Each structure stands twice: as structure tokens, then as C-alpha cells.
């Protein structure tokens, strides 16, 4: 049995509203167990005996799209890999006045493109560094989503393969016990 987290992109924003109970039910209907949602921003922990991660991802996306009527995109990460991502965060996650983020991607070439775009960032405002299957990012709180890199990652061409989470959210995912 493997514990995964599905990081959904774009729910409970821009008119796509999904109740967490309905989201949990969808995962259970797919045969996943110990399903737990964390926060209301599209974070689903679940156990499965399935081993083909791309097939799991495709099946979840299809089920979400069918049930909720939107183009569903997720990034699927096993919790062991997620723990490594959090542990390897290269910046000071408690830095006063800064937000610590991780950009997850399901396509390595897209993460490479984002890392390349981040090479010219002003370190007084934001910084980014590549990681294993992710891009680490920190940004001044006072700038936040108006930063150049945030605007760049928000482009439509990245929507299908990337999603961003605050490091504190990832800590909550790792600390969440399986649903009982």
C-alpha cells in the first residue's frame, strides 16, 4: 500500500467550487482508502495498492472532470517523496517577511523552463532553486502573487502540469494521520 497526495490545481477559485466531502467521496469511489482532504485548496491524501502512478493520475483527473465538470489537473506525489521535498527546502522557511513555496510539476521539461526563467530574479524580492521534481521558491510577503515569477508561473501554458503549495501546507499534509 502506498500513501499518495494529489495536489489539485485550480479548485475553489475562479468559479470551480468543490466541497471536500464530495472530493473525498470521489477518491473513495475510485477504490482508494484512508482518504483525507487537508485544507480546502485541493490536497487529498489517500492509500492505494495500485502502482502505476501515471495511470492513477489519469484516472483521478478523468473522475474529477466527469463528476465536477471541469478540466482537472493534478500533480501526484507519494508521501515519501513529499517528505524529501520538504526536508530539502533550500531557503530559510521561517525567514521573517517571506513566503516559502514549492512549485510541483508533472513534466520535467516544464520545471526546467521555469527554473531557467527564475535565473534572473531579483534576490531582494524572490528566489528560486531547482529540486528533485520541484522548483523551490521564496518571495517577499509584501510582493506575493504580484511578483514577476508568480505572474510567469501563472501563465496558461503551465496550468496543466504545475501547482504551487506553501511549505506550511506541505507540513500539514505530512502531519495528517490517515482517515479512520
TrEMBL record:
It comes from Cryobacterium mannosilyticum. InterPro entries: DUF1697 (IPR012545). This is DUF1697 domain-containing protein. Transmembrane segments: none annotated. It comes from the Bacteria. PANTHER family: BLL4334 PROTEIN, DUF1697 DOMAIN-CONTAINING PROTEIN.
Amino acid at each position: 500500500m502506498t500513501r499518495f497526495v494529489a495536489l489539485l490545481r485550480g479548485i475553489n477559485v475562479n468559479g470551480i467550487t468543490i466541497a471536500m466531502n464530495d472530493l473525498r467521496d470521489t477518491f473513495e469511489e475510485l477504490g482508494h482508502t484512508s482518504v483525507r482532504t487537508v485544507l480546502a485548496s485541493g490536497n487529498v491524501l489517500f492509500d492505494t495498492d495500485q502502482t502505476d502512478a501515471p495511470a492513477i493520475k489519469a484516472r483521478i483527473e478523468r473522475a474529477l472532470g466527469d463528476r465536477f465538470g471541469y478540466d482537472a489537473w493534478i500533480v501526484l506525489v507519494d508521501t515519501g517523496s513529499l517528505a524529501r521535498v520538504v526536508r530539502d527546502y533550500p531557503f530559510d522557511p521561517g525567514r521573517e517577511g517571506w513566503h516559502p513555496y514549492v512549485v510541483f510539476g508533472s513534466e520535467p521539461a516544464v520545471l526546467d523552463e521555469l527554473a531557467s526563467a527564475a535565473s534572473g530574479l531579483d534576490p531582494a524580492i524572490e528566489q528560486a532553486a531547482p529540486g528533485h521534481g520541484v522548483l523551490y521558491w521564496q518571495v517577499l510577503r509584501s510582493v506575493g502573487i504580484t511578483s514577476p515569477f508568480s505572474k510567469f508561473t501563472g501563465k496558461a501554458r503551465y496550468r496543466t502540469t504545475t501547482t504551487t503549495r506553501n511549505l506550511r501546507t506541505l507540513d500539514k499534509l505530512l502531519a495528517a494521520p490517515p482517515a479512520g
